[in-house]
């Protein structure tokens, strides 16, 4: 059996697929892809995947629904063409924040997406899903790859006076992992709502940030509101440099500009989403290769 | 148990859902629907579907992939909310023309789409799928609704000198059904390729169209190339009026203008797709109701 990496239908997926194939010394296959005049997607594999372990890399970027359906079409094509194993890598797994019913009448969107992928793939790997528990909705083998120590290794922080902060207690394990690797302190922000004004305030639980270089770590930056607030507090309390490290940098609206102009020194992100000009990206191809190796030839 | 019709997330689906609910004297439920800033879809049911037969109407119009994923999200929501039966009506079923592997390495796209719907729905009904045989890819009960006699009844053709033509022999059963209802002749076009010029010519097999009103019937008009050619031939041979009757009027690019300016008198279509200004639409809500009644309370 051979391993073949099939790059998905967007530029983000192409970049990671190329790097993954390189790390695995595997064949790279780039599908023929077009959109018909009526708007339907068309894919075709120009490579022979018969009896192979076929690894489709498709980051579920905007337009997410198109990315999802194309992953289904690629799954059908590799199955039809006789691949022995169908592996799907979704560096960014869309819909993972709708992971429960918040209001009656809602779907669990991530369940829907993972369920339909189960029809076509027997292994799924993703970079840092919002809640790891959601992967139970994929009926086969699912792998959550946490990139934080890998990213820290590639970045090579050399500060002697560094600490890691989580924006809230729910995400504290990410801070723990990173601080353990960097051998430094970690803490989290406590959010409180003022009972009179309704204003939400944040403060670090106990860490004294004065003069320290702080890494704020999270799975995703969306509009950046929480991280902006955290930055302002850290600056007021005398933090020296502020680094933001996330798996997925959506940075919607003007989040990038807002963060940099308010005191963030660097934003580090995995290369799972379309690139923003001032963000430092860490290629996760080699990391995915390492996490997949047990399942490959 | 009660029947609830849930209108899909586009205007085409809303119109049919309203008409279907009316025909069934069923409750109509309009989901709350929005798109998040990052591009993900959100749906929520504002109605109680517990223990009901929940009928989701979602025409898979452009953007097709968004329409498909929203049908999955609605499926998850009605299942989560305790519906006893999940029924999906896709008046227009996208991807049904990629129903086999034409070139090695292709998916059977319609298989992929129907397979994922099988995860959430136990009955699926559609208006005239391109090839009825494709419905085998839906693992539960699937219903293909042929609208031609219903449409003819609503239109009320009163010509004494009418005939039905199919653009090719593959679609001849549509012409047979319609001619049987109208009690008139039918025929089909034979396509031939000139061995020297490569030009494709069309001619009616044996019908003399001179002075006749002709109904050209097909499942779908896309760019309208074949029907345009048919119209020109029919006009040259002295046909009187030319009516086009299809289930699905995509009418891409300038097809509508092209057909009307080249001799087509009327285009009749089911209301399964976004409306074009000069097409006469026949609402298929009551027809769907009739075809579903055996499965409802």
TrEMBL record, chains A, B:
Q: How is the cofactor bound?
A: Binds 2 Mg(2+) ions per subunit.
Q: Where does Mg(2+) 1 bind?
A: 130
Superkingdom is: Archaea
Enumerate the residues binding ATP: 38-40, 97-98
What's the protein called, per UniProt?
Answer: Ribose-phosphate pyrophosphokinase
Any single biological process term in GO = 5-phosphoribose 1-diphosphate biosynthetic process
UniProt domain Phosphoribosyltransferase: residue ranges: 157-248
Give Gene Ontology CC terms.
Answer: cytoplasm; ribose phosphate diphosphokinase complex
| Function summary | Involved in the biosynthesis of the central metabolite phospho-alpha-D-ribosyl-1-pyrophosphate (PRPP) via the transfer of pyrophosphoryl group from ATP to 1-hydroxyl of ribose-5-phosphate (Rib-5-P).
Where D-ribose 5-phosphate is bound, by residue? 193, 218, 222-226
> Where is this chain primarily localised?
cytoplasm
Chain positions recorded as Mg(2+) 2 binding sites: 168
Give the pathway annotation.
Answer: Metabolic intermediate biosynthesis; 5-phospho-alpha-D-ribose 1-diphosphate biosynthesis; 5-phospho-alpha-D-ribose 1-diphosphate from D-ribose 5-phosphate (route I): step 1/1
For this chain, the family text in UniProt reads: Belongs to the ribose-phosphate pyrophosphokinase family. Class III (archaeal) subfamily.
